[in-house]
From TrEMBL:
Highest taxon of source: Bacteria
Organism, scientific name: Marinicella pacifica
Domain Fe2OG dioxygenase: 109-206
GO BP annotation list: cellular response to hypoxia
Official protein name in the record: SM-20
Upper taxonomic lineage: Bacteria, Pseudomonadati, Pseudomonadota, Gammaproteobacteria, Lysobacterales
Amino acid sequence: MGLFSTLSPQAASQLDVIVSGLYSTGFVVLDHVFDDNYLTCLLKELIDLNPQEFKPAGIGREDAYQKNKFVRNDRIHWLDGDESFLSSYLTWAESLRLAVNRRLFLGLYEYECMFAHYPEGAFYKRHIDAFKTGINRRLSTVLYLNPQWGPQDGGELVMYAPDSNRITHQILPTMGRLVVFLSEEFPHEVLPAKRARYSLTGWYRINEGHHPAF
Ligand SMILES: O=C(O)CCC(=O)C(=O)O
Ligand SMILES: [Fe+2]
C-alpha cells in the first residue's frame, strides 16, 4: 500500500496548494491541515514533556548568532522521530517532501523537527533559517499549537520580503495554523508572546554528501 493511500483526498489537495504556493511565492499559510483531536494530542504531548528536557534554543545545532539570548529566548526540544504521537505528523511531512521533490525538484532529503515553547515575553529577532552558503536547510515548516490565541496575545510571526525591510505578513500563531516557506529566502521574526506560545517546527534538509550524477 503506497503512502498516498493513507492521505485523505482533502490532505492530497492541500499538498497541491502548498506546492503551488511554494512555486509561485515561496511561502504558504494554511489552516485545518490536521484535525482538531490530533492537534490537541500534540499539544498535550508537548506540555507533558519534562521541562528539564527543553533547552534554551540555539544550543547544539545552530550558529553563534542564534545562541545569543538577546536574539531568541524560546526553549526547544528536539524530537527523535520515534515518538508514537508524531507518526501521523511525520507521515504528512514525508508526503509533503515527496510532493515537493516531484514538482519542484528541491532534492529534499530528510526532515528534522522540534517542539518550541516561547514562555511569556519570549521572542526571536529577525533571522534567516539558512544562508545559501551555510547549513543545508531548504524548507521550513511551523505548526502552531495555541488554542484561543488572539491579537492581544502577540507572538506574531513577521515575514519580510527577501533582502528587504518590507513586512509582507504578520501571522498569528493560532491552533493548527501551518506556515511553510523556503528557508533561504525569507527573513522573519517572532514578536514577544504575551503568554506561553507553542509550536512544532521543522526543516527539510538536502543531503550534503550527495552529489547527483546529473
Ligand atoms: O515560531 C515561529 O513562528 C517561527 C520560529 C522560527 O523562526 C525558528 O524557529 O526558526
Ligand atoms: Fe526561523
